[in-house]
Please model this.
Amino acid sequence: MTGAIVVDARGLRCPLPVIRLAARARDLPPGSTLVLLADDPAVRSDVPAWARMRGHAMADVAERDGQLTLTVVLG
Model:
């Protein structure tokens, strides 16, 4: 995924992954893609809720070996 900005929140627990994601998204233009790497299962519900509240779109949610990768496209 060319141009995606990766936010590595592995090892962090709720609410820190969403806080890191929101901080990184703050200065980016609409259409930017952020990829969150996390291992806290709470991000499965926290990130989509945050994205919905902010007008962003969830592009993908994947899990492999306990690591979650969530892709958000900023609205």
Q: What stands out?
A: The first helix runs from residue 16 to 25.
